[in-house]
Design goal:
By secondary structure, this protein is α+β, with helices and mostly antiparallel strands. The protein has nine helices and ten strands. It folds into two domains: about 70 residues, Orthogonal Bundle (Arc Repressor Mutant, subunit A); about 200 residues, 2-Layer Sandwich (Beta-Lactamase).
Amino acid sequence: MNERKILNSWKEISGYLGRGVRTIQRYEAELKLPVRRPKGQTRASVMAFSDEIDHWLEETLTARNKTSEARNGSAPHTSSRPHANGSRIGTPHHRTGACAFASSRNLELLKSVVITPELWRRPAHETDPERLNAGLRELTAHLQGSELGLLNTLVRAGLKLCDAHTAGFSTLCKDEKGEEFFRWDALAGALEHAVGGTTPRHWSPCGLTLDRQSPQLVSYPGRCFESLRPAQPPIVEGLVLPVFLESRQPLGTVWIVSHDKLRKFDCEDVRVMNSLAHFTAAAIRLARAQSRFASERSAKRA
């Protein structure tokens, strides 16, 4: 039997379930998520017990599956954005369904998938400083271009400098309902055919990286994150770094992956990718500031 854990805030509850705070609050109102409000505390003070949430998950998921089977004559359908070669990278359309939640079993699996401390246990390889400077010069050459062009240059540089098999940039977006998700806007390497694919904001390596605001290393992430299971070739190891604009506003994540057991990342890969990501974020901040200034000046003239 799983040990009972006490979750003392909306943030802890959302972290346990792998969903956003607003979504969790909606589940309390619409799906009777078992959230308690301690006596003598403000209305905003909440708590929950992990075993009660696990039981609620099982009951809610069972009810949804029965409803879906009765309606469609089959199990709930999961679809994703198709790509030219037929592979599919994406998130289930049950964005607000209980099947998108993280169970306690998934949380235990997460501990074996996220292996970030290994970055500093492994011997660090050396990167030729001139190769890194060449990558930064290439980014500089694209400063006057589009943001997408800059992101494509970033992932190509990361792919080359870190000897990765795929490199990508996942932009944080919102759908028509205000739900956040990641879109793979720039890709280079083995998975570049999946450009335009999507993954969830919550319960994904990219979401975990933004939540923790630090680089994360994952091993065979498809074991835990459903949206990555269709990836071909499969992801063996992935290094994900957060990219922020001003006031810690998240732009998205940049990541490199390996597709075989021989290529493992270390702290030197973190240093290199951080250098590239920080330069790119600064360039985008500058370009957006210049664009705002130009728009304001045009508005004043009008």
